[in-house]
Amino acid sequence: MTENDGDVQNLLASGKSFLQYERERLQTCYVTTDQAERQADDLQTKLASGKKPKTHIGKYTNYNFNRQEFLEEVKNCKSTIMNWTRMAIKYNVTLNGKLAGNGGQILKQFAQDNDIDVNQFNPHLRISGRDHLQRIRRSKKRVFRGKLAIPNKRTAKKLKSIIQHKLESKIYDIGLKIAPKEIRKNTIDSSGNIQETSIQVYGRKIPLKDIILKEIQRLTKSGVLISKSDEHYKSLSKEAVNNRLKQISSTKSTETDNTTEINQLMTMERQIHLKLWHDHSDILNHTYISFMVSFLYDHANFLTNEEFKETYPKKKPVDVQAIVERPNLYIFGQSGSKDTEQVSYTPTRTEDLEELRNGVIFDGIPYTFQLRFFSGDGPARQFEAGQQRGGNYSCLCGVHSKNHINLECCFKRTPSDLEDRRAVFLKGESLVKIKQGNINPFQNLSKDELTEELECRGIDTFRLKTKASLQEEMSDLLHGISRPPALLLHYPEKSLTESNVSCYEVLPCEPLHDISNVVQNIIQELPHHVKLKSTKLDLEKFCNNTIGDKTKLRDRTSVERRTPRQILRLYNQTFLFAVLSKSIIGIPVKMTQRKFYGSHFHSLVVHLPEIYRIINTKSILAEQEERTFGSLRRLAEGTTNRKPGWIVDNTILRFNCQQTDNRICSFSKQNSVISQQSKLLSKRENTIFPKEIFGIKSSLFQSHLERIADYLIPGYNIWWHYNGTELVFHDSVDEPEFRMQGPDTANFRSTSLKKERAIIDDIWQTSVDKAASSELVLPLLHVKTREDGKLIYKRTNLKSVMKHATSPTNSISDQDETNDNLEETTEKETNQDDNSESTEDYISNIPNVQEPPEVPAIDQERKHLEDKENKEKYKSYIKVSRWTVQPTCSKIDVHESLFSKPNKLPANSAMKPLTCKRKLFASEVSKPEIASCRKKTTLDMVVQLLGPSSDVDNCLKYRELKQKHPGHKSFISAFDQSFSKLQIEVSKRYFALKDKTAKDEGKENRENLLADKEIAQKLLDHWGVYYF
Predict the structure, then answer these.
(1) pLDDT tens, residue by residue, 328-360
(2) Disordered: where is this region (predicted)?
């Protein structure tokens, strides 16, 4: 062995077998067999012609051995078999103190030179008992005209011995043997009979504590882990501690003692959360299970991308979250998909969690760890949570499969945690059966057992006479729960805290599978709902090409992109997707209704936004873990003898050697491809709900609003407004990511799905109470509630908003009002910024026909900086109390306040309240305010005069771009050109109308001509254009 065994590491990480390595070694370093035969023939020809043979011995005096004793033994040897190499080892033939490599060759030649007939030995190696077989040996390859030989690699046999030594010395760790299983197989003996033999196989587990220590060492070496000593925390000032707590915590600390705040900060920054994943796959015709564990990225424990750039300015920018959340192989072994087989790995997992209770100390710093989430496909989630496999209750939330299409039922379902599931088994005889080894105590119950289980849970069974009715009642009660969660199965009487899984949650959604399956179902079903034959053929062709291509690109949202606006956007878009699916698809044709609106559709629409509230989708995406099975399968197929007893050890060893620190991450390239494709999509506007949803689907829409109550309680015109015909939510990319009025983004560190749902329910009840007292406007005509078991409809203030937004007084009916509006516009012009013009008034009823040009990168950077500034203001302003709402106006002036401009903060404050649109100029009026007032502007009058045209659309487009990107020369120039064209068109229209009215043309329409002429004249006067 050498100190640098890089060739050993390269062999194990390459995925090549020892035989393949040896073949490549001989091919690289040695000549071919044909070349060796030609060299041997040439040598024999030269020797026959009198060339002196080459000797490999030299002088016998250089060697140290007992010559006389050797000669005596050879002369007296009666055997015809002689092993010269063993004789050299026996007599210790050394050269310069080292054993000679060609000792056998030396002794044979020495015996021959001392008149001993060596041909009497080994006659089986000679042809016809006379001539020896000539051994053709492949020589090393040479370069530079044969002067230099290519360096030779170590043999596979040597590398194998080194690997064996490193395994014995624990340099290479393949874990502990766990979960022994006996496999039976049939073999044929020498007589041709079939015999059944059994083989005992084991799984392997790398202790969780060892994985954590290696990960902490890796993350410390990479510089992304925040590791500070106790002395550092004690040296912090109270202001520094408060700033750090404000930065990483979603709620303001109520502690006044500096020591308590320091302890709180130490606890947050030293507590790391873990994510678990497991799945089954087929490897060499057997089913194997793989468990993987990874750290969860939290900016309280790790640097952000920007902090990494500031800390290491000379290093290449990296994706810190991708570095932190690298999965590690935890358990690997042969196991079927049945619960009885998977349960065999549970005891060793609970042992690791118990050992992890006291934490880990690294470089003198104590770290604590919490198992936080489980993310996997449907069957894996069901096993981990104790849910039945498939059936009518496939989702962990307990909604019946036939109700997955009932969105209102799904939205109102309260999530349950593992403690709720454990509590189900604390009553009745189920706990006794579990301790007796029955892991599914509710299966195959008799009628008496069903009656007892129901009565123990307070269900009256007097009217349930048949077993079928009892079973139905039991199924409705359990909602698919079949056994305790996996980690609580062996000790269900222990609480989650006692089992060290108090924060553990099994997520009801896994975006990797759910999104891909929903998209696939949509693509397959959509062609069957198109009537036009050509369009249907195109869709079917697209379906075949898309489904046939197995290469999929899936985007995921990183932790830095999870903002309140993004959360609201996901809620609205998934709700719209569900409503449109039911409206357009309705009853599926290609597949069954249960498949189309099945668990994947349900998880995506209902659970994904709820999960996104507390954690970003990139952290729970199981794409990297799913890929590992491909590596495990390739290693098992290409580097093992394919016997069950040898697969696990070899595969774990080679897989861990492949997990090097500098391996290439495919996420960066994949994200680049997705980013390029996203540029081809149209601009994502605000989410709009039509007015009909208030009446036809008011109950469904209310259930959606109940889930986003924290976005409604800040008030009207903050996250939503009514434009007269539609309800508009401010969630487009142009909107600010954060708003001073809230809400804030929750963190999985301090909350859970169940807690968040309880908080949102409380906020909704507060919103309903405020709406009933006219202190708040909800986007509903009436709210449906229950009081004392009775259904009650409470009116809201939305009608007043709708009436004001659609009031006819907001439109121009005569020329006097037109003049007033022109005067108002002139007054606004004097108060506007120098970069704005009076002609740039917003027109809400003219659509933007052409797509806006691509915004330069500098503008995207500008928006990023503004969002960051808003985020800092938001953190320092709104987090005084998480769900506190600023005082609103009284009942009398509540309607007037809806359309008034938001009050400014005190003069001594540097912060400005955020409106529904990000303002670039201090005097700019936001679109919702103008849309609510419905005032006619100069461009409204241009459209009334000329009609909708591309010139008007271009003017609108470049006006908005000029306002969003001040100083952009191309946008300013394009606006000036389009505005000049409009002035020319209005001038031409004026002179045409002047000629018609002067010549008495169009007498039957003279009043309209005069009205148009008056509008053109006022526009030209307003612009200062000469028209006499």
Answers:
(1) 999 999 998 888 899 999 999 999 999 999 899
(2) 803-853
As a whole number of angstroms, the distance between CA 250 and CA 879 comes to: 7
Over the chain, what is the mean pLDDT?
Answer: 81
Residues with Cβ within 8 Å of residue 544, at least 6 apart in sequence? none
Would the pLDDT of 324 be above 50?
yes
Please report which helix (H) or strand (E) contains residue 510, including its range: none
How crowded is residue 648: how many other Cβ atoms within 10 Å of its Cβ? 24
Contact (CB, 8 A) for 332 and 648: yes
State the pTM of this model: 0.74
Look at residue 908 and tell me whether its pLDDT is greater than 50: no
The whole-angstrom separation of Cα 639 and Cα 632 is 11
Q: Is the peptide bond before 966 cis (omega within 30 degrees of 0)?
A: no
**997 has which bridge partners?**
none
Residue 842 in contact with residue 919, Cβ under 8 Å?
no
**What residues are paired with 275 via a beta bridge?**
294, 373
Tell me how far apart the alpha carbons of residues 71 and 61 are, in angstroms, rounded to a whole number.
16
Spatial distance between the Cα atoms of 599 and 758, rounded to a whole number of angstroms: 24
d(CA 406, CA 417): 23
The CA-atom distances, in angstroms, between 357 and each of 284, 353, 369, 750 are 38, 6, 8, 19
Q: Which of 373-382, 463-472, 547-556, 655-664 has the highest mean pLDDT?
A: 373-382
Q: Quick one: DSSP state of residue 746? A: P
Write the CB contacts of 803 (distance below 8 Å, at least 6 apart in sequence): none
Place of tokens 């560190």: 749
Query: Rounded distance, CA 382 to CA 395, Å?
Result: 8
Q: How far apart are CA 463 and CA 451, in angstroms?
A: 11
